[in-house]
Structure formats: C-alpha cells, structure tokens
Specification:
Length: 232
C-alpha cells in the first residue's frame, strides 16, 4: 500500500516543484469547488509569470484573485471574469493577458488535453473574435473552427472525498470543471474534505480514478459564497 499512498501532509509538499512560468489548470466555478489551500500556497511561494487556466479568476480577496495582488499571474485563459475588480484593472492596464474562451470550449480543451487529443473542431465561436487566426473547416456544410487542447505543469483541484490511492468523489455542483482539470496536469494535486482508506469508496461512485492524481491533501475549507441574496 505504501507505494501507492498519495497523501501528503503539508501544502508545501503538495505544491513542491511549482516554478515561475508554469501553466496551472485550476478546477472550480466561481468560488464553488475551488482548491482554496493550494491557491494560498501558490501565493505563499510567490511563484510568478504563471499562466492560469480556469473558468474565472475568483474575487478580489479570495480564490485565484489572491494571486493578482503580487502580480503572480501573467496570463489567464478563462470563460468568465466579471466578479473581480482588480482583475479588470490589470487587464485594462495591460498587466495581465486574457484569453476569453467559451465555457464549453474551455471544458473540452481540458478534457481533450487529458485524453491526449491535441485539438478538435467546434462550431462555437465561428464568426466572432474567438475564431480569429484559427483554421476553419466545413462538416456537412457547417463551418467549424479548430481549437487546441490544453495541458499544464500542475492541475489543482478540489474534491469531496479521496482514498489514499487518489481515487476521487466530487459533491454536487462542486464537480464543475474539476474532473476535466484533473486529467490535464502533468502533476495533479487534489485538496479534499475527507480521506478514507482504500476500499471504502464504492468503485461505481468514483468520478476521477487515482491514475490521474499524484498528490492528495486534506484541506480546511472556508467555502465562501460570492453573493448572498435573501428575501427582504
């Protein structure tokens, strides 16, 4: 069992090997299902010139947004960036490069990268600035654009449960981009709420097999909500 045990006990060990200029693929949607502690460890390490691939860039003081304060992110590939004023300002000031990508295309870029598929054709984005400079091909009379897949040096994800072999179970909408991101990193680190012994997870309920996961750490999550709305 020891040779297959992927559990680490410190965030420093979890993110060991990250370096300036790396591409980081991050799971999460808004603040739901984000690897809070792993993001904070990147901030602590002060790693810079990062390319970050994620649905969005958190908020000003939480999630991936904390990496903007010390200008650790050089480029972000995302589908939505509307909740972060600092992000907007850095974009307008030319400090950060932004590649806006349709949400489904972004998910498929991760999935295809993890599957070893270098590119795919999609109709999404044709006739818009998204298609500029990309190859166009017709299938059954409809134009499609060629999108390249994405991989990164690190994938950081959040799961509900893991066993020591790295098999993962996600919970409800916190699943979001995490399963695709998990496959696309050369080193995939999962921050989880609970770690169980091998054999305790029902095999048919496992969402991401441990073959994709290199390290597992038990996190302590704040689970902040972006906007709390109640009735008057």
């Amino acid at each position: 069992m020891a040779g297959f045990d992927k559990v680490v006990t410190s965030y420093a060990e979890a993110m060991d090997g990250i370096k300036d200029g790396d591409t980081i693929i991050a799971g999460g949607f808004g603040l739901c299902g984000i690897p809070e502690g792993l993001i904070n460890e990147i901030k602590r390490k002060k790693t810079k010139e990062l390319t970050v691939v994620s649905n969005n860039c958190g908020v000003d003081d939480f999630g991936l947004g904390v990496l903007l304060h010390d200008r650790q992110i050089k480029k972000i590939i995302a589908s939505y960036v509307g909740e972060n004023a600092l992000f907007e300002q850095q974009l307008l000031d030319g400090i950060i490069d932004v590649e806006l990508t349709p949400q489904g295309t972004l998910a498929e870029k991760m999935r295809a990268g993890g599957a070893g598929i270098p590119g795919f054709y999609t109709a999404t984005g044709y006739g818009t600035p998204v298609a500029e400079g990309k190859e166009v091909k017709e299938f059954d009379g409809r134009p499609y654009i060629l999108e390249e897949s994405i991989t990164g040096e690190f994938a950081i994800i959040k799961a509900w449960k893991a066993d020591r072999y790295g098999n993962l179970v996600f919970r409800h909408t916190a699943m979001n981009f995490n399963p695709m991101a998990a496959t696309a990193g050369k080193i995939t680190v999962a921050e989880v709420e609970e770690i169980v012994e091998p054999g305790e997870l029902e095999p048919s309920q496992i969402h991401t097999p441990g073959i994709y996961v290199n390290r597992v750490i038990k996190g302590d999550f704040e689970k902040r909500i972006e906007r709390v709305t109640t009735r008057k």
